[in-house]
Amino acid sequence: MSAEEDTAQAIDNKEQSLLDHLIELRDRLLRMVVAVLVLFLVLFPFSEQIFTVVAQPLLALMPEGTSMIATSVTSPFLVPFKLVLLVAVLLAVPYLLHQLWAFVAPGLYSHEKRLAAPLLISSVMLFYCGIAFAYFVVFPLLFAFFIAVAPEGVAVMTDIGQYLDFIIAIFFAFGIAFEVPVATFLLILAGATTADNMAKKRPYIIVGAFVIGMMLTPPDVISQSLLAVPMWALFEIGLIMSRIFIKPEAVNESHPDFQFHDDNPDDPDEDEMDAMLDEMEREERENLQRPD
Fold it and tell me: What 3-state DSSP class applies to 159?
C-alpha cells in the first residue's frame, strides 16, 4: 500500500470516527430531550398545584384580602407552563448529566474518571441545596421585608409572571453560588493555585462574594447578604476538602506543568545532572565501540 493510500485510509478512519461521535451525541441529546418531555407531560396536569407550592412563601405573608394577579391575558396559561418546564428540567438533571458523562467518559483517564463521578454528584446535590436554601430560608425573609416596607395604602398584589421570573433568577443564583466548593476544589486540583494561596486571598474572596451577591440578587442588603455569606462559608468548605483530599502527587499527575517540589539540598543541581548524563552517554558509546 502506497503512502497516498495510507493517508487516504487514515483520513477516512478519522472522518468515520468523527461521524460516529456526532451520531452518538445526537442520540444522547435526543434522549435528554425525551426525558424532559416525559417529565413535563407527567407534571403538567398538576401545574396549578405546583405553582401554588412555589408561590406559598409569598402567599403566606401577603396581607389578608390580597392575592396574586395576572396582568397579561396569556399569563394564567404560560406561567404554569414555564414553571412545569423548569421543574421538569431540574428533576431531569441527574439523567442529563449521566448522558453527558456517558459521552465524555471514554476519553478520560482512569484517575479523571475516579474524580469526575463524585464531583458530578456533589455538583447536583449542591445545586439542589442552593434551591432549597432559597425556597425555605431566603424567600420568607425576603418577601417579609418587601411587604413590611410597602408604603401605607399600597396593596401588595404581585403579578404571577413577574413573580415567576423573580424566583427563577433567585433559584439559579443560589444554585450556582452553592457550586463554590466544587469550583474551589477543581482550581486547586488543576494546579491553578494552592489551598494556602487561596486562604491568603480570603479578604478578596469575601469582597467578591458580596459583589456577586449584589449582581445576582435584587438591590437590597438582605438578599445580597443571604447569598454572599453562604458563598463565603462554602468557599471555606472547599478549602477544607481540598486540604484533606488533594495531595501534591494528585496535582502533579493531573497537571504536569504545575509541580510541587521538595527543596532538598542534597539533590544535584542542573549542571551536575548534565555532567552525569554526559558521562553515562560517553560510557555507553565506549561499550558499543568495544569489540566482543
Answer: strand
Type of residue at 72: S
- Contact present, 211 and 264 (Cβ < 8 Å): no
Cα(210)–Cα(73) distance, integer angstroms: 39
Cα 35 to Cα 43, 47, 248, 262, distances in angstroms: 12, 18, 41, 51
pTM for this model (two decimals): 0.70
Q: Is 69 helix (H, G, I), strand (E, B) or coil?
A: strand
User: Is residue 185 within 8 Å of residue 246, measured between CB atoms?
Assistant: yes
| Residues in Cβ contact with 257 at an 8 Å cutoff, skipping those fewer than 6 apart | 191
Residue 152 to residues 57, 58, 103, 148: CA-CA distances in angstroms?
22, 19, 58, 10
Q: Give the span between the Cα atoms of 231 and 214, in whole angstroms.
A: 13
Q: How many C-alpha atoms does 35 have within 13 Å on its Cβ side?
A: 17
Q: Dump pLDDT digits (tens) for 34-82.
A: 999 999 999 999 999 999 999 999 988 888 878 888 888 888 889 999 9
**Angstrom distance (rounded) from CA 51 to CA 85:** 12
- Beta strands, E only, 108-154: none
